[in-house]
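User: two proteins, same treatment. go.

Assistant:
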Amino acid sequence: MEIVITVWASIVETGYLIPGFLAFIFLITFFQSNWFKGKAGEGAVAFLLSRLPKDDYVTLNDVTIPTQDGTTQIDHIVVSIYGVFVVKTKLTPTAVRNIGNLAERI
C-alpha cells in the first residue's frame, strides 16, 4: 500500500494528474487481471522447475503443439529417467491435492 501512496504522490506533484491517474488505473487493473496472475504463476513454477538437477531433468515451458483443431498449449513438460511429467499451472487461493484423476481443494 505504501508504494501506491508514493506513486500517487509523485503523479500529483508533477502536475500530470489526468494522464497519471489513467496510467495508475491501467496498471492496477493490469496487475489484477487473470492473464497477469496466470503468467506470474507459470513463471514461478518455471523458476522452481529450473532448479531441478540438470543431469537428471529436462524442462520445457510454454509448449505449443499443433492439433487437428488448431493448437494447444502445455505449461510445463518435465522429462527425466523417472518419466515424462506434464504440469498444468493453476493459480488458486487455496491448496489443491491431486488424487488420481481427481483434484481436491484442501
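Protein 2:
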Amino acid sequence: MLPNLYPADELAMIRAHKRRLEDRERQLREGYLSGRLNPVGYEATVELKTTRQRVLRKDRLPDVIKNDPSYWDDRVVTSVVLRKIGTRGPIPQGAADPDRSAWGRGDRGS
C-alpha cells in the first residue's frame, strides 16, 4: 500500500501500471515471434515453443455426437517461454527470487 493514498486511487494506479506492463510484454512477444529481438539475456533466455491443441468446433457438433473425433481440429499455438539460465524448467509466473531485490536488479546496483 502506498502512503497517503486512498485504496481506490491505489487500485487505479495498479491497473494503469498493469496495462503498461501488458503493452510492453505484447511488444516484446511480437519482437521475439518476428525474430527481431535477441533471445539471450544475462539471467534468462527466451524460446519459442510450438504446441498443438485440440479445439472443439461446437458450431458443427450436434448434441448427440459430442464425443465424435471427426468434429475436432488441431491448432498450432506458438508460446514465448521464459527460462532462467542454468535451469531446465520455465520460471513460474510471479515467482520471487530471494537473491534479488523487488525491482529485479539484485546486487548490480540501481
